[in-house]
Design brief:
Distance between the termini: 38 Å
Radius of gyration: 16 Å
Bound molecules: uracil
Number of helices: 10
CATH superfamily: Uracil-DNA glycosylase-like domain
Strand content: 5-15%
Structural class: alpha/beta
Order of helices and strands: HHEEHHEHEHHEEHHH
Oligomer: single chain
CATH class: Alpha Beta
Number of domains: 1
CATH topology: Uracil-DNA Glycosylase, subunit E
Shape: globular
């Protein structure tokens, strides 16, 4: 069994936090284990918990549509979540649940070695840039440990507020160019932490939305 498959097995059998008690099954992630782009959401919902696959409900349809819109298929990228088990009634993941699962997220990043990580919503954004406002940060790619982290709104935000769709679509349209840029920048590796400087100047006007 490959190291990656062993990680998937560990996620599927994890009992580190209370979310494991309420799950139908864990949702490790889906896509290419050698993907250049990794999408990180929040946590599985009803359908994800039922089928063991990430982003297959309504928010997932938005994500799949946005991917297809820039010529990518789900199989071309890797899609996962901050917590791998469904929080009851889709509540926000709690700090202890996020921290119990964070080793899995780190291991997935380490093994997949994506060039660009897209954070979807505030929980995955908070892993990389804790305490910052997603509203201000979205659409601005940043460096983090030799990787490009590109914060975006959560696709579910579009379902609650259709006005956000154009911002999310615009952020997606820049992805191919970011992959290209990241391919030519220095790879991740040991050494001092690079400053988390924005790669671009102020993008389109930030909108007020605290939920996502
Ligand atoms: N489905 C997921 O897999 N993750 C989310 O964050 C939302 C829906």
């Amino acid at each position: 069994m490959s190291e990656f498959d062993m990680l998937v097995q560990r996620i599927k059998t994890c009992t580190e936090c209370a979310l494991s008690q309420g799950r139908t099954q864990a949702v490790p992630g889906e896509g290419s284990p050698t993907a250049d782009i990794m999408f990180i959401g929040e946590g599985p919902g009803y359908y994800e918990d039922r089928d063991g696959r990430p982003f297959i409900g309504r928010a997932g349809n938005v994500l799949t549509g946005l991917l297809n819109g820039i010529g990518l298929r789900r199989e071309d990228v890797y899609i996962t979540n901050m917590v791998k088990c469904r929080p009851p009634n889709n509540r926000d993941p709690m700090p202890e649940e996020l921290s119990a699962c964070s080793g899995f997220m780190d291991a997935q990043i380490e093994m997949i070695k994506p060039k660009v990580i897209v954070t979807l919503g505030r929980f995955s954004f908070g892993k990389f840039f804790p305490g910052e406002s997603i509203t201000r940060a979205r659409g601005k790619p940043r460096r983090w440990r030799g990787l490009t982290v590109y914060p975006m709104y959560h696709p579910a935000a579009v379902l609650h507020n259709p006005n956000l769709r154009s911002a999310l679509e615009g952020d997606f349209r820049r992805l191919p160019e970011l992959i290209e840029e990241a391919a030519h920048s220095s790879p991740a590796g040991p050494g001092p932490e690079p400053a988390d400087v924005p790669l671009v100047k102020e993008p389109a006007k930030a909108r007020q939305l605290n939920m996502f």
